[in-house]
Amino acid sequence: MSAQPATTRDGSPAPKTPATPAPISQLMGELVVDLLEQTGLIPEAKIGVLREQAKHAPVVQVLIDEGLASSEAIARIVAAQYGLPVVELGNVGIDPIAASSVPLHVLEQVNAIPYAFEDDSLCVAISDPQNIHGIDALRLASRHPIALSVAASEDIANELGRLARTAEAFGTRSSLDTVELEVVDEDELDDLEVDDGISDAPLVRLVNSIIFEAAEDGASDVHFEPQSDALVVRFRIDGVLHETQRIPRRSAIGVTTRLKVLAKLDIAERRKPQDGRISLSASAAGRMLDVRVATLPTVEGESVVMRLLDKSKKPPTMEEVGLSAAMQEQLGVLIHRPTGALLVSGPTGSGKSTTLFSAMTEINRPEINVITVEDPVEYRLAGLSQVQINPRAGLTFATVLRSILRSDPDVVMVGEIRDVETAKISIEAALTGHFVLSTLHTNDAPSALTRLNEMGVEPFLTGAAVSGVLAQRLARRLCEHCKELYAASKEELDAARIPEELRHGKTELFRRNGCVRCRQTGYRGRIGIFQLLEMNEELSTLAARKASHEELERAAMVSGMSTLWADGIEKVLNGMTSLEELARVSTI
Q1: Contact (Cβ atoms closer than 8 angstroms) between residue 257 and residue 274
Q2: For the ranges 10-19, 181-190, 406-415, 552-561, which has the lowest average pLDDT?
Q3: What is the per-residue pLDDT across 441-451, written as a single tens digit (0 to 9) for each?
Q4: Is-cis flag, bond preceding 376, omega within 30?
Q5: Strand 466-478 and strand 340-345: pairing?
Q6: Which of 315, 436, 438, 446 is most buried, by CB atoms within 10 Å?
Q7: What's the pLDDT tens digit per position in 459-508?
Q8: How far apart are CA 356 and CA 154, in angstroms?
Q9: DSSP secondary structure string for all residues of 551-570
Q10: What's the burial of 117, exposed, middle or buried (CB within 10 Å: 0-12/13-18/19+)?
């Protein structure tokens, strides 16, 4: 039965309802996409995606999300369009008094951040000058006249996140709105706000703020070091310690007591070292943290060191850790072998476990059984069976490894080969149908083969089982916002032994400078420096007859292995790090 046309009461045809017009913002987005298409600046393949996404989100945000423009470039364009100055928040810094002069919830709604006072005006950075209602809300919430500037939306969001975490740490914002609990056993959860009946509220907030600041800054360790006049707090960021604050001596015992309460340590015992842990699942910390706490009695009092492990972070890819394309290809062949052993060597804190997990992400697939034994478990990876060793319960690397081999594994990852028993079981597993990944503490790749022999592994087993050795160091990355180009002298290039074929007539290198974003260090983040030894018949024969380190190194260099320094020089020439930093972590 066909549908009848709509009619009015008197039987005349009803007027047609006009189609709902598209929102103005959507029409503006389509207009911008049309203009971009005419310029030819956007690839044709991306235009369709951009046009579709612009129906549901601001076109500017779509451009950033699709990687077609940076938030800094967008900020400059928007500022020019509206005749407003551009401000780089990372360079000018944020005045805490200015930032606190407008309620945080208003700033989050508008995506704005006050960063300074100028005469009687409050300088506010915004990302969208077209948001008239938001600007009006800012004017109503502030007691000062407002001077607007435009800043990158990502920078504003980062600063607002820092403000929110600080507010939660000091109890000025209700944690009920923002705290999310991780799904873990109840006995593993620790609450930073728990009342221990000993610490007073200011000390609780102080400890909270230090932990949140460390998480925000990406610190791997927090040191509380008692001195004659103060308790010095230092963060290890990118492998280097930085002093962040000095707590008055009168509060030192209260701070260490609070930390010991959180870590479930004996607060009355100050004469012996103690170890504990804190498991933080509050999203306010910015990361899901597993904190290892170690106390040490010193002549000035108890020192406390906290190791921050991010339980929620994802392992990087092999490209992200800094492996060159050629080395990625070589390593890719090694890790997809059904049997053998891949060893990663380097000093403590050189990123060996991270590199192993970048390889594990390539290996991991549903049709194989992957089991790891670690201390501690640094990354949580779906599809893996991960075991945390517990010496107090008798779970050592060797005992767990024996049980793992009875659990039908295809791939076994051993966090570290520390003793002869673990070494022998690992090498024998590599010869009996398993692929084994592990780490060793040696200075370079050939040393790993001699170290196994020194530990008591039979040389013929080493030569037959080991597929390859990857040696590495971690160098700090130059800050992209402030690194500067300079003309390197011929003497400097010669001293660094940069080959002529790599120079290509280039005498300009990058060096550190320093800005607010990198805490005036000139570096931000780290990158790996690598040396890959791929075993072949000659090297296996040399290892089996217990050849010296020099013989192994010479044969490996003939086979194509390069030095750690050579890999670092490539990263210096590419502007990733500096000669100064390379010399700090490696030798020629």
Answers
A1: no
A2: 181-190
A3: 999 999 999 99
A4: yes
A5: parallel
A6: 446
A7: 999 999 999 999 999 999 998 888 889 888 888 888 888 776 665 556 78
A8: 31
A9: HHHHHHHHTT---HHHHHHH
A10: middle
Q: SS3 letters for 329-362?
A: HHHHHHHCCCCEEEEEECCCCCCHHHHHHHHHHH
What CA–CA distance (Å, rounded) separates 173 from 169? 8
Residue 188's identity, in one-letter code, is E
Cα(470)–Cα(342) distance, integer angstroms: 8
3-state secondary structure at position 495: helix
Query: What string of DSSP letters covers 108-134?
Result: HHHTEEEEEEETTEEEEEES-TT-HHH
pLDDT score recorded for residue 506: 61
Tokens for 115, please give them.
């960063």
d(CA 417, CA 158): 40
**CA 273 vs CA 261, 298, 393, 416: distances in Å:** 15, 10, 20, 24
Check residue 213 and give its pLDDT: 82
* Residue bearing tokens 């100028």: 118
Nearest in space to 356 (alpha carbons), one of 440, 285, 254, 437: 437
CB 543 within 8 A of CB 506: no
